[in-house]
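Lab meeting tomorrow. Look over both lines:
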Amino acid sequence: MDKFKEIRPIVLGICIKNNKLLVGEGYDNIKSETFYRCLGGGIEFLEKSEETLKREFLEEISANIIVKDFLGMSENIFEYKGKMAHELILFYLIDISDNDYKEEYDIKDGESRYKAKWIDIDEFKNRNKILYPKEVFRYL
């Protein structure tokens, strides 16, 4: 699937501990913008969204998660690195075990490498840091 030519179904996990949100850090070199996004990924054909979330967390940060509540769904049309993209996003509240807790995680996703870290939710609410998509604020 070409995520810049098709509508992509994805699932994101909202994981909160001590008023901090677990997010991946991204950078758009066209906009010169550092941004953050909850972890998750693309739903594969015949894969339930909850299973996708478990798989993605295991692949990306080697963590087993507990998928709790389905929070909602949103449609996101956005520009990233000069290309337009379109997603349908399912949001779940999740927990990560204390055994899998780290302050920071190194993630390799295909050719991409980035960090995931716990950031105080107030940093996003106060607009000191950018959190995408905007609809995630409904669940914080």
The beta strands are 7-17, 20-28, 33-42, 65-80, 83-96, 104-109, 112-120, 131-132. The chain has a mean pLDDT of 94. Helices lie at 49-61, 121-125. The radius of gyration is 14 Å.
